[in-house]
Each structure stands twice: as structure tokens, then as C-alpha cells.
Amino acid sequence: MHAPIILVALLVLGGLAYLLIPPLRQRIGWAVAALALISPATVYGSVLTGEMFADYTFGEGKWTDAVEQHQNYGWWLLWTLVALVPVWFLFAGLDRGRRAALQRNGAAPAPAADEDSETPAGADDPAATGRKVIMFIIGLVAFALLALAAYLLFKSGHSGADMVWGATVQQ
């Protein structure tokens, strides 16, 4: 089953675009959110069907080292994607709050700044600074998880290709 190769790759590319290009967030947010939910399910299905195929091919508990390594990459990819889901939706929720606050500020007249106040004129979002810091930290975690998912996807695909084509190429 090769659906995870396409879906996880799309998740990584879309996720990086979402994190690094804020103007795109509103346009691609739902697609990336759907990929964040669907990708772990496809990886799980692939791992389970791969295990069944390996049991059928080699016998239960008699897998080669290459098959076990391929399976381990699949499990690590699955758990990386599972860890990404709450991180992703937390970041997206904070971004939605940020956009809503910006929209409120744009629609309302700017209040005059007080001399004693540390809040600039036109800012009615008391959580703006804290939200930016939290979004930066969660964005770094999401970026790291996306990078790890890309690495594990590559390693899993490469180990699978080596099992199938390695013997053919080396002959």
C-alpha cells in the first residue's frame, strides 16, 4: 500500500508551507488539517498489511532483518504522525485566534493610547505577545515533527525499495 508515500509527502509539503508562509494559512489550512488526520490512518493500515504480508511470505516470527527494519521505520513514522496531530491543531487554533484578533482590530476604530499603558493604540488583543511566543515554540515542534516524518518516510521507502530492487540491481 503506497498511499502513505503520497499523503505523508503532501502533509510535509503543505505543513511546511502552512508554517513558513502565513498568508497561505487560510487557504490551505483545511487541506493540511485533513492530511494530518488521514496520514496516520494510512500509515497504520500500511504497517498492518505489511506485517500480514511478511508473515505470509516468511512465516510468523521468521522475518529477515531488512523486513524488520522496514517495519520499524513504519511504526516510528506512525508515532511521529500521531504526535503531530495535537501539536498541529494547537498551532492552527492559535493562528485562527490571531487572525480573528487582527480582523477585530481592523474593523474597529483605533482607541487612543494611554501614556501609562504599555499596549499600543489599536491593539485590543491582550494575548497577542504571549500567543506569538507560544506559536513560535509550537511551530518549531511542528517543524521538527514534519522533518522527522519526512526522514522516516524516506528511510521506510528506501528500505522497502532496497528489499525489492536491491538484489536485482546488484546482480
Structural Rg? 22 Å
Overall mean pLDDT stands at 85
Structural class by helix and strand composition: mainly alpha
Bin the helical content.
Answer: over 70%
**Which outline best applies?**
elongated
Which spans have pLDDT < 50 for at least 5 consecutive residues? none
Give the amount of beta strand, in percent: under 5%
End-to-end gap = 27 Å
Order of helices and strands: HHHH
Counting DSSP E segments of at least 2 residues, the number of strands comes to 0
Give the biggest beta sheet. none
Identify the quaternary structure here: single chain
Number of domains: 1
**Please, how many helices?**
4
Transmembrane segments: 6-21, 28-53, 73-94, 133-154
Keywords: Membrane, Transmembrane, Transmembrane helix
What does this molecule look like?
By secondary structure, the chain is mainly alpha-helical. It has one domain. The protein has 4 helices and no strands. Helix 1 runs antiparallel to helix 2, helix 1 packs antiparallel against helix 4 and helix 3 packs antiparallel against helix 4. The protein starts with a helix and ends with a helix. The relative contact order is 0.14. The model has no long low-confidence stretch (mean pLDDT 85). Keywords: Membrane, Transmembrane, Transmembrane helix.
